[in-house]
Amino acid sequence: MVGVILYADLIMNYPFRNSLISKLYIIGCNYFYVSVTVICVWNYDYTIYDSDLFYFMAFLMMLLSYFLYNIQNYQLENILHLTHENFEMLYMHLDFYLEELVRFGIDQYKNEFNRFKLFQLLGYHKQKCIFLDCYCKRTNFKDHKDNLNYQDLLILVDDLFLQFLNSKIISKNDYEREHLYLKYISFITNYRNNPIRAYYVLKSYLAKYKKSSFYFATISKVLSAKIEKQIEEKQHLFYQISKINEAQANSKIKETVKTKEVEQTLSLKQNLLPLFISFVKSKIDYWQRVINGFDNIDQFSKQTMLFSKKSFIIQQNFNELFSNENKLISLDENAIVAKLISIYKCIVMNQLSQSYKYETLFISLKKNDFSKPYFTINQYNLADQNVQHFVISISKERGKILSKKTQEQANLFGYYLKDFEQIQFIDQLIPPFISVCHNQLIENMIQRGATLYLQRSKQTFAKSCQGFIFPINIYLDHFHQYDDDFCMFGVVLKLKSSKQYIIFDQQGKIKGFSKKIFHQIFKQRNDIKNKLIKQEQDCEVITLSQAMLNLNLFVLMPKLAQNVENLFQSCEDLEQENKQNIINSIKSNPLTKYIQNVTSNSEEYIENIVFPRKAQELSQNLEKFLATTIKGGALKKSQKITNESVQSEHIGFTSYEQFYQNNIKGHKQIKIYYNL
Questions:
Q1: CA torsion through residues 356, 358, 361, 366, sign
Q2: Phi, psi values for residue 458, rounded to 5°
């Protein structure tokens, strides 16, 4: 009976791992049970001679092994020829099918049979596949030497995993869905070498399916910890390699505060300041009652005990917070922590000498970092509230702000706290020309598995409540505090610089204005409306939205058009140079000298900012002018530009002079310095 059950288990639950192990398993089982059976028969049947016992055993063992192996081989071939037609019958073995494809790819150079078998399976799949977007339709799985392209195979397996996981049968079967997801996550981590994407898939599953089995929940916690470690190791290696390629001048500039410490410091501040404020109010109320007096000593004793209890609670919370955060925050080198301790010693402990000591440390740390570069995270920027942090959801609701919104964050973007709390997604704080590709940048990071934007600064722009742009440095890192969500942690450093920006595209369409330069350009223009009331019909106040929608930069700065044209043509010349001599060509190219002259001597590039007439009328005139210019064939073409797509977008910038003369000549002008 035991033998029958074992054979049934062998046939029905094939140990789908390795064909050699399977053969050994079959032979071992058959040898044992055949030998036991023959010996038992031999004991009761005296017609069998001892010399024939071995031949009986060998013959029966080979016959039975051959029979069982063919049964299993038939089952194996049936699974390997999986198609949409037999999917419902074989969906329990999807993981084995995909594992066998990968195994054949790994062992192709060890065994010619594996290579032949793999090409046979890939050809069969390509013939039977009904999905038009399947990767098998875009490749023949061969490299330039007609060998198997292993990366194409992995991409196909990845694609098949997603197809299987999205099927209705798998979606309804909780066990198979969990099992296949675990296989997929392991595949992405081990074979695709993309722990970030694996982590994203795991957290997305936990966010989508709240009710998971105990087995899956336990395995997911182990996988999360393992993948988080791999992410940190891979990102650290990626960061070290990128640092080697940086210039020495840039590598010498270091932040005095790390991004992890920023998160811990600001979190500590958010937890302690409300406690201090509440305690100060209680302290004022207590001493006011003492001044007014009590009817008896019992009332005084009762109020004193209540006040002492509040003081004791704050001491406990303070010690608990510092015991948890103390490992990551250096108490003697952090200005915010020094300030918090100073407040604590003063108002709670009444230790004025200790409070003065930490206050002196706070001033010293802030003063030491005052002369450091403004674009680095240092104690001065941290104490001046130029540094804030955000936690952003990636897998649940991409771009949603998960961290608590504070008054300091609202001040950074120019909002009132009540209005800032209505902002739900980070896209609302990003200029439109960046937000259109923000989600795609995140998707690229997930697919690539690493990014240069992590653990290092990246200068970009943010948007204020009024719509103006301002420069920031952003520092990104992974955040592993949520069990059901893949999150990113970002530190934003507001750059307080005298530089002002106008963002525009190659056609002169304005994408963003800094606040000061916008007022510098349009303030005097808008003041005309107040001074010339009689001419109010010819003059209107220009708002930011009107300027970005209706005005063109080359209308405001006609002479800049020629410089941009030179820039385009010089870049095109560089692309046509020999790649081997590109370094020498850059050094000898007039464009390089031109840019160096702009940087060293800005006075040579002074531009007239023109105050135009009505924005809407000017926009209509400009559109008519451009349409006539392009249709009439008056578009200026560079002799060296051969790319038709570039020609179609390359506007004849010098032609703006004619438009300038006919439309806005004689209006008030101011001078502005600029660098390209």
A1: negative
A2: -140, 120
**Which of the residue ranges 239-243, 353-357, 404-408 would you say has the lowest mean pLDDT?**
239-243
Residues 357, 517: Cα–Cα separation, whole Å: 44
Q: What is the β-pairing status of strands 510-513 and 502-504?
A: antiparallel
Average pLDDT of the chain to the nearest whole number = 73
Distance, in Å, from the CA atom of 175 to the CA atom of 212, rounded to the nearest integer, reads: 9
The single-letter DSSP state of residue 294 is -
Write down the H helix ranges in 193-296.
195-208, 214-244, 248-251, 259-292
- DSSP of 571-626, one letter per residue? HHHHHTS-GGGHHHHHHHSHHHHHHHHHHH-GGG-EEEEE--S-HHHHHHHHHHHH
What DSSP string runs through 149-213? -HHHHHHHHHHHHHHHHTSHHHHH-HHHHHHHHHHHHHHHHHTS--HHHHHHHHHHHHHH-----
Contacts of 229 (CB under 8 A, 6+ apart): none
Query: Each residue of 476-508: pLDDT tens digit?
Result: 887 777 888 888 888 888 888 778 888 887 777
* DSSP secondary structure code for residue 147 in this structure: S
Query: Taking Cα atoms as reference points, which of 269, 381, 386 lies closest to residue 329?
Result: 269
- Are the CB atoms for 640 and 572 separated by under 8 Å? yes
Give the gyration radius of the chain's Cα atoms: 36
Question: Are 129 and 137 within 8 A, CB to CB?
Answer: yes
As a whole number of angstroms, the distance between CA 591 and CA 566 comes to 8
Decide: 411 and 494 in contact? Cβ < 8 Å: no
Q: Tokens at residue 578, please? A: 């020999």
What pLDDT digit, counting tens, does each position of 313-333 carry? 888 888 877 775 555 566 667
Alpha carbons 374 and 36: distance in angstroms, whole number:
85
pLDDT in tens, 517-554: 888 777 655 555 555 544 444 445 667 887 777 777 77
φ/ψ bin of 547: left (φ > 0), alpha (ψ from -120 to 50), beta (otherwise): alpha
pLDDT band of 462, cuts 50, 70, 90: very high
Q: Are 544 and 468 contacting, i.e. CB atoms less than 8 angstroms apart? A: yes
CB 10 within 8 A of CB 68: yes
pLDDT at 121: 85
C-alpha atoms less than 13 angstroms from C-alpha of 88 in its C-beta half-sphere: 2
